[in-house]
Amino acid sequence: MRLILSIIGLALSTVRENKMRSLLTVLGVVIGTGTIIAVGSIMAGFDGAVTGVIRSFGTNTVFVTKNGAFQQTRSAEERRRKPLSYEDAKAIEEHSPAVEYVSPILNAQGGILRARYKGNDLFQLRFFGTDEHYGDSGQVDLAEGRFFTQAENRRRMMVAVIGSDAYKSLFGSEQALGKIINVAGAQLEVIGVLKKPATALPGQSDNQIIVPYFVVKKMFPNQREHQFMVKAREGQLALAIDEMRVALRQSRHDGFAAPDSFAISTSDQLVEQFRSITAMVALVLVVLSSIGLLVGGIGVMNIMLVSVTERTREIGIRKAIGARRSDIVMQFLTEAVVLTGLGGLLGMAVGYGVSLVVRLAMPNLPTLVPTWAVLAGIGVSVGIGLFFGIWPASKAARLDPVEALRYE
User: Fold this and answer.
1) DSSP one-letter string for 371-398
2) In angstroms, what CA-CA distances link 247 with 64, 69, 92, 125, 252?
3) What is the dihedral of CA 391, 394, 396, 399, to 10 degrees?
4) What are the tens digits of pLDDT across the range 287-305?
5) Distance between CA 235 and CA 232 in Å, rounded?
6) CA dist 394 to 241, 350, 403, Å?
7) S-S: 98 plus which of 86, 239, 270, 375, CB 3.0-4.6 Å?
8) What's the sign of the alpha-carbon dihedral 352, 353, 354, 358?
9) What distance in Å separates the CA atoms of residue 131 and residue 101, rounded to the nearest whole number?
10) How many angstroms separate the CA atoms of 157 and 168, rounded?
């Protein structure tokens, strides 16, 4: 143990004597390790943000869409599927006793949507219609006002509930309740304002404007793309999914041997699908960041070879007084590991700094440095030192002591 500590002390003194050269040598290791830490923290934060949004719907919530969420490719059959309809939602309600309620969601799409109040305009907004049950979904947390009722939906009352960012853009600090806003040429009375969501996607603004389902149907009669948010009765999620599948297959006239012409997903399934994609993205990013580590390793090997040449006489003296080959190998390998280890520590500091800056700049992205990223950063930086230090160390160990002592 004392021998190892003395070798580490010797390696640290060598680093101190050549500060700038040592820093430039491990710059690639610093960049590579910092990138691994930063990428790991950002991906962990993104995962936490997205899964938080998905899980906020609750464990008894089921999503029905024409195609599955987070799908990268679609088959020919999926591309041919007809949109989900309002009649499909009614079929679920009528033939699924385990379902508590079905909320159809119809997004207004096509063209440029604009909301206006007096001289204030809002362009990047999500304008959709749903029913009164959406107010109980966990996605509606009112700062003031109320959500619309079943009667207002049936009578196509021109009322709206707006998001917190939509409120700031249109009204600033002015009272919004009871005011009339213009959306796509329609006059809507604001009856509710949402709180800032506790969970949101990174960079996402709460610019949603929610109106009764039949209002969107009246304003955009050609819209066909529905989504359903279905709430299963407590403890009957699996039964509800089975009943929904049967009801939808009958409603959409799916053939006996044909696949489902729709996709049913629970919150847990959506989280798994999302993580399967982000895991692949994270792997690609880590592999790309490893290029910096490779460059850093080559730099370490080159500088260690230069160090062997510069210290040839020192190596000869050590061998002359009894140092074995293993002692020389240990000395130079330790110097390489100490050098890359220090680079790894600097890289972790850089990565943590990037993570902190991202967290401050994007509060919706709760970046967190995961344990695996720290362990990977330390392990890879030490491994780089060992791998790229073997050749210089073995070259030093093979030097003939007599020739080394003659070296000038």
Assistant:
1) HHHHHHHHHHHHHHHHHHHHHHHHHHHT
2) 12, 21, 6, 34, 9
3) -130
4) 777 777 777 777 777 777 7
5) 8
6) 65, 33, 16
7) 239
8) positive
9) 10
10) 24
Contact by Cβ (8 Å): 229, 57: yes
Q: Is there a contact between 203 and 46 (Cβ–Cβ < 8 Å)?
A: no
The pTM of this model reads 0.68
Tell me the C-alpha distance between 248 and 240, whole Å: 12
The torsion of the CA quartet 104, 105, 111, 114, rounded to 10 degrees, works out to 130
Angle at which helices 325-361 and 27-55 cross, to 10°: 40
pLDDT computed for residue 14 by the predictor:
63
The backbone torsions φ and ψ at residue 361, rounded to the nearest 5 degrees and listed phi first, read -75, -30
The 10s digit of each residue's pLDDT in 182-221 is 998 899 999 999 988 765 555 556 788 999 999 999 998 8
Compute the distance between CA of residue 70 and CA of residue 53 in angstroms, rounded to an integer: 14
**Coil, strand or helix: which one is 160?**
strand
Amino acid 91: pLDDT = 92
Q: Strands (DSSP E) along 131-286, which ranges?
A: 142-145, 159-162, 180-183, 186-194, 208-212, 226-232, 263-266
Please report which residue ranges of 311-407 form alpha helices under DSSP H. 312-320, 325-361, 371-397, 401-406
Burial 303-332 (b: 16+ CB within 10 A, else e): bbeebbeebbeebbebbeeebeeeebbbbb
pLDDT tens digits, residue range 146-168? 999 999 999 999 999 998 889 99
Instruction: Record the tokens describing residue 146, joined without a space.
Output: 């109320």
**Which pair of structure tokens corresponds to residue 90?**
């009614």
